[in-house]
Amino acid sequence: ITSAHGQLCAGECCFKCPFVHNFYPENAFATSVPTVSGISIISFFCCAFLLTSLLFESPQFPGNLIHHIEFGMLVFHLNQSLILAFPSQFICKDSITAATQGNSFACLLQGVVFIASIFYVNCYTAAYCVSLHLLLVWNNTSLSKYRSHLFAFVVVVSLGVAGSIAGMHGYASNGIMCTITAEEVMANDLFFWPLVTLSGPPYLLNFWTIYEMLRIQLASPLRANAPSSPSVLEAAAGSIRRSVLGRQMGSDAELDKYSSRDTISTQLDASSPVKERPKSYLGVAMERAAESVDNGLQRLKDIVTESGRPIAMCTVCIGLLGIDYDISNSTVNTFTSFIESPPDWTIDWFMCIMSHQSQTECARISVPKLSSKFVLQFGMYSSSAMGIIMFLIMAPKTWKLWRKHVI
């Protein structure tokens, strides 16, 4: 088997494009391209809606970094959704020739935008995580002074990596769209290791942020809004004493004799109208204590929500793209290895094809040896759903903005 100019041939016989589909039943992936394109279009509109919603308010740093994350995803999904409109430019040039950056400028452009947008999104997600940590844990907003420097750094890194891969002729169709070809090891290393270096540490930093905020909050859950004297704990102890004495004495009047230090004087003039008895200082203290507990629980909820959002965003960006990249690359690697050292079963499969049996019939030989088509489809769909999942993550905040400014 020889590979040249996007074609894989054995003698005078060439494999149909996409090459991967030859080993599965005929039309097994017929709906894959429309589905990926459709999901990408929905994700595009989800990102556009989120970006529009965020423009209602101008959040302070680091919240405004989310604008850049959404913009990067918008470009990513727009680029991905074009495959249905121009399949001959992004998937197959003809029935036996796969699209590569050498035979399709559109393939080159899609690959560059694909890699650049991935780095743009992940760099700004990392910056958001680091800035949130500095703000919540260290009360430090120094990074806000370097927003223009951050933007320049992200753009240079994104375009630099994407352009370098193009210089290595590293873009080709994977059967769905133009991305990094598995055959170019250096191009894959240039994509993978910088992305892991930029995304991994900030992702782990989120857990430190949550730990520190919860530790501080749980160490003094009742401190905020508590009365200065007596303390909340003293008030609680006083409440217990009042409860016990109340059961023993049987009336508030008698109880007040034993707990006068906790009570505001309530003597009434016999000639004056009946007035509502003022609350004791202890009662006020206990109300404030209960309010403090509620506020503390609300703060805990806010901490988990606000800190959990960047973790969820990092998981979406790293996880879904990682799944797509891993499945796509491992699949392409499996098939391209056939060129150098075909496994034994490929001989049986090839003889089946040469005997003019149907592709579906011959797939009975190959399918048990390969990844399930559902695994491949899951990899295809994972990255295209990124915008939809991000919409679900941001939905509560977006709903509040729309209720405030529109509804």
From TrEMBL:
Phylogenetic lineage: Eukaryota, Fungi, Fungi incertae sedis, Chytridiomycota, Chytridiomycota incertae sedis
Transmembrane segments: 36-56, 111-138, 150-171, 191-211, 374-395
Keywords for the protein's UniProt record, in alphabetical order: Membrane, Transmembrane, Transmembrane helix
Protein name, UniProt field: G-protein coupled receptors family 2 profile 2 domain-containing protein
Keyword Lipoprotein: no
UniProt source species: Rhizoclosmatium globosum
KW Transmembrane helix (keyword) present: yes
